[in-house]
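User: Hey, quick favor. My workstation is busy. Could you predict this chain's structure for me?
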Amino acid sequence: MTSAAKEVGISHVGLLHHFGTKEKLLHAVVARREAEQVDLFDRLAGLRGLEALRAIASFGEDAVTDPVHTRLLVVLVGESLQPDDPLNGYFRDRYGLVRAFVATAVRSGQEEGEIRADADPEAVAAEVTSFIGGAALAWLLDPDAIDIAATYGDYVTRLTADLAR
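Assistant: No problem, here it is.
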């Protein structure tokens, strides 16, 4: 909470006074991110197949645009791994939405004949969500060594080439 207080220019006590508890602060942070993500998911909702998968490349650009928020979310995910952690359900649901989006994209691409029939939609979805989390963590640990936007672009290019018929 101390670093969050510094980010907004108030004391730890002032931040706690405003939100009451650390848990309420955490929920406020994820609610803000959720509001931002609504626009993203609305934009992605109409996409299908390879086009939907190619849109994932923009996630790397989103990280560069808001690195502080990206760092905060990575930390919160790490602190929310136990089922009784306050944000565990939120992050499980969030990853579930991304997995569902990817699996649906693969299935729709298979139906349209542009994605290989032998591709397992659930396995691809697990791979993509793993990449997203891992890429963000690697970039945050060494941002000078990793161009996150290019990394996302390269990954999505390889993924879609592999899945294409």
